[in-house]
């Protein structure tokens, strides 16, 4: 798959995550019900702009003790940091807490981890787990988390680079992610140009009884919204 261009990044960073969801729904109608977070995530820094980056996927636990001092774990930790620092970049950490009914028991994310990961090219994190140290988080590092807690407990990485699911959003390592205070979505890279064309599409305002002719940019299925009545939707199939 072709990598997104700087123009693609600039476009995505100029719009919020709900708008991205709307555009994905227009250009890929089958994505209307999937590919984004579906539960509330705490966002300590709602004023930060949207982040757009490639997913670094991680699973972790925090409730039960593990032998953190053993050589095998320390090597895994070093391998994990190499993974975080590797291309493609910029990155967004997508981290699934595997503690089941105790999810969020201990925070992976705080002052130290935010600064370390920011230095390795990460823009922020999306996790069903927890965060802490809110006033001391690295400046500009965004966090979307299932909860906020005081302790890191026995937090440790289980695995990295595999498929994860965070609050209903299924993610593979390397997926392009868009996230802001509302949540996160996996962006179909091959549809970004069509998303931009859909956003540029605007029929303007018409008086009662008036008609308008519209040239759609490409063939396909389009979902048209009414700016005055946002619950009104019109599906248009363009064959040529």
Q: What does this 3D model show about the protein?
A:
Helix content is about 20%, strand content about 30%. It has two domains: about 5-190, Ribonuclease E inhibitor RraA/RraA-like (Glucose Oxidase, domain 1, 3-Layer(bba) Sandwich), CATH 3.50.30.40; about 205-240, no CATH class. Strands 1, 2, 3, 4, 5, 8 and 9 form a seven-stranded mixed β-sheet that branches. It has helices spanning about 5-15, 15-25, 70-85, 110-120, 190-200; strands spanning about 50-60, 90-95, 120-130, 140-150, 155-160, 165, 170, 175-180, 185, 220-225, 235-240. The model has no long low-confidence stretch (mean pLDDT about 90). By secondary structure, the chain is an alpha/beta fold. It starts with 5 loop residues before the first helix and ends with a strand.
């Amino acid at each position: 798959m072709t990598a997104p261009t700087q123009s693609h990044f600039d476009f995505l960073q100029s719009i919020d995550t709900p708008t991205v969801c709307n555009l994905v729904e227009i250009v890929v109608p089958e994505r209307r019900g999937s590919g984004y977070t579906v539960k509330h995530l705490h966002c300590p820094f709602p004023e930060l702009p949207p982040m757009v980056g490639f997913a670094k996927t991680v699973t972790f636990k925090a409730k039960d003790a593990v032998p953190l001092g053993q050589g095998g774990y320390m090597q895994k930790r070093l391998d994990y940091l190499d993974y975080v620092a590797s291309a493609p970049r910029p990155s967004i950490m997508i981290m699934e807490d595997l503690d089941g009914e105790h999810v969020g028991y201990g925070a992976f994310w705080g002052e130290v981890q935010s600064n370390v990961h920011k230095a390795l090219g990460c823009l922020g994190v999306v996790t069903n787990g927890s965060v802490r140290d809110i006033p001391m988080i690295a400046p500009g590092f965004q966090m979307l988390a299932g909860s906020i807690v005081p302790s890191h407990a026995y937090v440790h990485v289980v695995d990295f680079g595999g498929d994860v699911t965070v609050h209903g959003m299924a993610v593979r390592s390397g997926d392009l992610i868009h996230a802001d205070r509302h949540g996160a979505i996996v962006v179909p890279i091959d549809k970004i140009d069509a998303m931009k064309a859909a956003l540029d599409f605007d029929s303007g305002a018409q008086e009662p009884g008036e008609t308008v002719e519209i040239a759609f940019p490409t063939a396909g299925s389009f979902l048209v919204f009414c700016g005055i009545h946002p619950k009104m939707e019109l599906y248009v199939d363009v064959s040529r």
